Amino acid sequence: MDTLMLDRGVRDADQGLERLYDRVRRVVPPMEWAGFADDIRAIIELKKQRNAVILAHNYQTPEIFHCVSDIVGDSLALAREAQEVDADVIVMAGVHFMAETAKLMNPSKTVLIPDARAGCSLADSITPADVRLLRERFPGVPIVTYVNTSAAVKAESDICCTSGNARKVVESLGVPRVLMIPDEFLARNVAAETDVEILAWHGHCEVHERFTPADIAALRAAHPGVVVLSHPECPPEVVAASDFAGSTARMSEFVAERQPQRVVLITECSMSDNLAVQHPKVEFVRPCNLCPHMKRITLGAIRHALETMSEPVEIDPSVAFAARRSVERMLAV
Length: 333
Ligand code: 13P
Ligand code: SF4
What we know:
The protein is of the alpha/beta class. It has helices at 2-24, 30-50, 62-65, 75-84, 96-105, 128-137, 151-155, 166-172, 184-191, 213-222, 236-240, 248-258, 270-278, 299-308, 317-332, and strands at 52-57, 71-73, 89-93, 110-112, 143-146, 159-161, 177-181, 197-200, 227-230, 244-245, 262-266, 283-285.
């Protein structure tokens, strides 16, 4: 009897895995899947044991995004959703600032980052001391801080924004001038859409800063009719050469609603793989710039995080209150 039940359990698990593979078959070759199956099976089991949910950013690889995650989205959606999580444990399949934001929004939960080295060139470009100096230099000018920053930098700020709501946040303040930190290109792209004067910092995303208008011209020449969508962390000349610019969620919505015949996403590579799974009729042209930080998160790292409950994200209580206030102000806009 025991053996029969065990056999049935194994068979059900295998059928479940087969169904998961059906989802990603078009972007994950069978050879690669063979290396993923064991970790996926273990992660599904560990999630039950630990009462854990996995939040995954749109740049996570398809076997994470489509096979083990419970909630997926852009930075804004992940911040909102983190607030609502009821489970005991949140595993952030994303970068460190995203895990910190989840902890800020739901402090009683254990938030795990599967690889604490998963940083961000934007978050690294500015310190709390820099923000204090900016305040001294521009007294009375509100500081709007991109969520791609440490909790300590958020704590020195007036309000946060993401690429999905940056213009709305800036305009909500009702002032003629704001400081927008740390992404120079996001600040310049927002400045092109608003009458509010925007003072920028000099941080860049190491993935998006590499795209050039010449890349867009070459893509259009090689793939006639291609619709070009870019992320607002790209240089303004790249955004100007694109057909549409928006956060990763806005790009997903664009593809879902318009179903372009052929599209290119000027952003991190995995985004196209994830959307290709959902939109089999759309042809994705794929110039590839990988985020090395996002790519530190693997199935193996997630499994290890759940097995060992590492690495828990802790935020200094002296910064948590003020950092949370900046994120909450953004969510209220
Ligand atoms: P989104 O908020 O658009 O998901 O972007 C996050 C990010 O890190 C982009 O590089
Ligand atoms: Fe940071 Fe750029 Fe990676 Fe996003 S893609 S996490 S902004 S380095």
